[in-house]
Amino acid sequence: MPDPTTPDLGLLPHFCLAxxxxxxxxxxxxxxxxxRSGEExxxxxxxxxxxxxxxxxxxxxxxxxxxxxxxxxxxxKEGVVFALxxxxxxxxxxxxxxxxxxxxxxxxxxxxxxPADLICKHYGSSVAxxxxxxxxxxxxxxxxxxxxxxxxxIISERLFAGEHAFEIGACLLSLxxxxxxxxxxxRSVAWTDALxxxxxxxxxxLSGLAAVAALGGPSAFFEKVxxxxxxxxxVPGTTGSFTPEKMFTLCIFGALGSxxxxxxxxxxxxxxxxxxxxRSAVIFALGLxxxxxxxxxxxxxxxxxxxxxxxxxxxxxxxxxxxxxTNTVAATEADLAKRLDNGxxxxxxxxxGTDSRDFDQIMVVVLKxxxxxxxxxxxxxxxxxxxxxxxxxxxxxxxxxxxxxxAVLTRDIYGGVLRPGASEKSRLWVGxxxxxxxxxxxxxxxxxxRSSESFDPIGMIMPMSILAIAFSSQLLPVTIDxxxxxxxxxxxxxxxxxxxxxxxxxxxxxxxxxxxxxxxxVGLFARLKQLADxxxxxxxxxxxxxxxxxxxxxxx
Amino acid sequence: xxADSKTPTKRWQWLGLVLILLFALAMFMGPGPGLRLVNPEPxxxxxxxxxxxxxxxxxxxxxxxxxxxxxxxxxxxxxxxxDDE
Lengths: 556, 85
Fold this sequence. Notes:
The structure holds 2 protein chains of 2 kinds.
Chain A: H1 12-34, H2 39-44, H3 51-62, H4 65-78, H5 89-98, H6 100-110, H7 115-123, H8 127-159, H9 165-214, H10 218-225, H11 244-259, H12 262-270, H13 274-306, E1 310-312, E2 318-324, E3 327-332, H14 336-341, E4 345-346, H15 362-375, H16 377-418, H17 424-451, H18 457-473, H19 476-485, H20 490-506, H21 510-515, H22 520-531, H23 534-555
Antiparallel strand pairs in A: 1-2, 2-3, 2-4
Helix pairs in contact in A: 1-9, 1-16, 3-9, 3-12, 3-13, 3-16, 4-13, 4-16, 5-11, 5-13, 6-12, 7-8, 8-9, 8-16, 8-17, 8-18, 9-13, 9-15, 9-16, 9-17, 11-18, 12-16, 15-16, 16-17, 18-23, 20-23
Chain B: H1 2-29, E1 50-51, E2 54-55, H2 56-77, H3 79-82
């Protein structure tokens, strides 16, 4: 639905987006011309990626549309506390070298392509272990691809007027992404990611500058930010969700879980040298954190000033708008926690959205409304470019995950379990088929969710995407054992992963479906979720089981 | 000769340990429980919410980002460089 309160961008977005998509396809075709035949080239670009492409593709894969929409949205909702989530990025940066370089070395020496190749080689080939590692990769990739396609539709809807803007945007994003992965493989994905990563970093910083400029420069910006309600400037934030303990575990396991997911793992294999990963680590840790802290996070803070969540009432006390069931109610800062405990949800400013899920719109609203006001036609162009950068963020995550999913299902399941003797050529064609099928399936889920009121796969997938990183974190104990400790056993690895995944599953909607939403088990895990990251809870159990079973195997 | 070849390795090990501890401290203090040291009380006046004109929580985050960045750059120029092929 076009927003009537924001300026009309005319045909500018059409030209910019068309040019951008054509350029991506051009890179895809260039990737084909540069490629050599074979699985290693299709999945790992011949293991020859230099530091610039490595760093940009790792960054672009790390940041999905969540970085450009979700992060400023979370700061807009919760306040300054969520800006500190950016401090997980340097840890991810360090992991690129500390974990990535060892993975790269082993991959180069033994010809590994997927995470399961390396893990199963270390513990001795096992179908169960291979399937488990592949399942974790699959559980990570699917929600991410679906959400990126949906984000493409939403951005298109915001950019273009027209009844079917969402559908056209989602289809275009999926089709172009699918085409360049299928024809060019890793080389096309990495080069388009490099372009998208550069665009993404520029967009993140420019959006922060836009927010600061909209409030009259840095001094005026922080002066106005300092007048925000107490909950916006302190821990645990507006809804009380981000306690320091939770932030701590979330930063550690969010960072590491994202770095050992299959798409990143394959980028470590694809790096040419240790030097490429060393430089990537530094660029990632310093550059990307800066883009967060001085870029998108400032959009969220500036958003709280431009579109306040709470306004002073006649007594000068800040009052929030909350959604309680179907009603909109007001609550003072002192009553806020009690109201939220009773199931109320905070609402954004009416100009940003009318639903409690509309906080993520703050970035697009600030860009579309304030950049043209500040800079005229140049602002219009910059605003459009940044919105296209958000689409780039969505595409770069979708392409990496589709490509990695193809490798995992083809190498680990089709070639590793179903048809171990399959030729490389047939595996490559199956891989391309997986990409096409996964794209069509994801697109279908997006459309079904949009058109059906009774069946909403996205509604199930959104919580799953939060669980995705937690699932991915369950590979952490095994990875550390394979790369550093080398003391675990195959049975220990399998038992640990299964135990960790079961714990993570307990945080999903499944226990509520099986035992009822007011059962003691559901209540216990809901309380645990308030205290610590889900991935952390799973890893604690995973490590314990892994160590005990390995120890038992050793004594036997 | 053996002592000479051991000395730099030992030095790197110490440096590695120091950097790991420094980074872990930054993770604990920056986004972690260390935040409670600077978190303003609900009754605090507006001055307690800011530091050098910035929201105190944001300034705290920037400081620990500086520490994390220092640790990563130092490791990159020393420990990780020796590991290059």
